[in-house]
Amino acid sequence: MEIPEVIEERRLCRGKRVALVQRVYRIGNDFVARDVVCFGQSVAVLAIKNNKVLLIKQFRPPIGRWIIEIPAGRVEPGEQPEQAAVRELREEVGYEPGRLTKISSVYPSPGYSDEVIHIYLATDLRYVGASPEAGELIEVIEVDMDRALDIVLSEGVADAKTVLALTLFRMLTT
Amino acid sequence: MEIPEVIEERRLCRGKRVALVQRVYRIGNDFVARDVVCFGQSVAVLAIKNNKVLLIKQFRPPIGRWIIEIPAGRVEPGEQPEQAAVRELREEVGYEPGRLTKISSVYPSPGYSDEVIHIYLATDLRYVGASPEAGELIEVIEVDMDRALDIVLSEGVADAKTVLALTLFRMLTT
Questions:
Q1: Which of A84, B7, B10, B46 has the most CB atoms within 10 Å of its CB?
Q2: What confidence category does residue B76 fall into, taking pLDDT thresholds of 50, 70 and 90?
Q3: B135 pLDDT band (50/70/90 cuts)?
Q4: pLDDT of residue A28
Q5: Domain Nudix hydrolase spans what residues (chains A, B) (predicted)?
């Protein structure tokens, strides 16, 4: 399928973690400007131990509330996604995986963000101690695999990658 | 759980569809600055007709490629999410639903965006003709319900809300 030509791209501003750019495309005879939030790659990890899922309850400034998520974070410069998955799992819940398997990769918001989330399954977990980043408010909770999806969905508005990881895992294993 | 106090919020810049603000929180004795992409509410619609799913193949500037998605878009000022779902379904694929049911609401990127996506199931569809927005490159495809998830996942990196709608629907109906 036709890929429209990029005529111009200019950065509108840069925050601490994301930049906002405006990209202008030529589509037929029209020039169309689109916002692009530049974020890059991130990882999320469905970590399972003795049929329990390791979840975190975390304060998220953009939505102004605490929300239940699987461990997740950004792929830092120079990292491979698998390395980021192992690092985030250790930092946020304190476990190292013996096995790490890719479940899926998804675009959470392709309408305005370039983010790609790589979702992994982590098993054969070994406790090594958590080390959350400064300024992150995190509480770790362990939840029965069978109850995890209900708990996450019961929040009213749930975290998309967490629901996705749980539903895809359930479909792959049943 | 404790909700940290917002000390300051300032807009870094505004694009055509999103704004980037920086929000400063007091967490314990620390001041923590976080980027927030202000987007607001959106809708996505799993539309099913004779056991086929109505999907669109759409060029998405932020990721620079065409991707298969369920019909979706932003809740415009003054609209209720249900109205936006009906409007987007009509504009993008040309159908009006006799029944519209909420499947779930999710945050696609709570780490940096305030977006909430409301996902609906649309059935009892009646064709009224599509009217895509200027500058949107869209192709409508109808796919067997049983094959839809495989087709979407086969793209390598898939659209999160589309996978979510398909997996949640499958779990609700089996």
A1: B46
A2: very high
A3: low
A4: 81
A5: 38-165
pLDDT < 50: residue spans in chain A? none
A2-11, A73-82, B37-46, B112-121: which has the minimum mean pLDDT?
A: A2-11
Q: Which domains does chain B have, with CATH numbers?
A: 5-38 (no CATH), 41-173 (3.90.79.10)
Q: Which long-range contacts (CB under 8 A, 24 or more apart) does B74-77 make?
A: B74/B17, B74/B39, B74/B40, B74/B41, B74/B42, B74/B43, B75/B40, B75/B41, B75/B42, B75/B43, B75/B118
Q: Are A13 and B12 in contact (CB under 8 A)?
A: yes
pLDDT digits (tens, 9 = 90+) for A71-83: 999 999 999 999 9
Q: What are phi and psi of A160, to 5 degrees?
A: -60, -50
Out of B8, B76, B133, B136, pick the active-site residue: B136
Helix axes B145-153, B160-173, angle to 10 degrees: 150
What's the whole-number mean pLDDT along residues B137-166? 94
The secondary structure of residue A40, as a DSSP letter, is -
At residue B75, the pLDDT reads 98
Q: Which of B3, B72, B106 lies nearest to residue A160, judging by beta carbons?
A: B106
CA distance A154 to B64: 35
**Closest chain A CA to residue B28:** A135
Structure tokens at A80: 């491979």
Tell me the two tokens of residue B72: 């979706």
| Chain A residues lying within 8 Å of B16, measured CB to CB | 22, 33-35
Residues of A marked as catalytic: 136
Size of interface A-B (CB pairs under 8 A): 216
Distance from CA of B72 to the nearest CA of A (A): 9
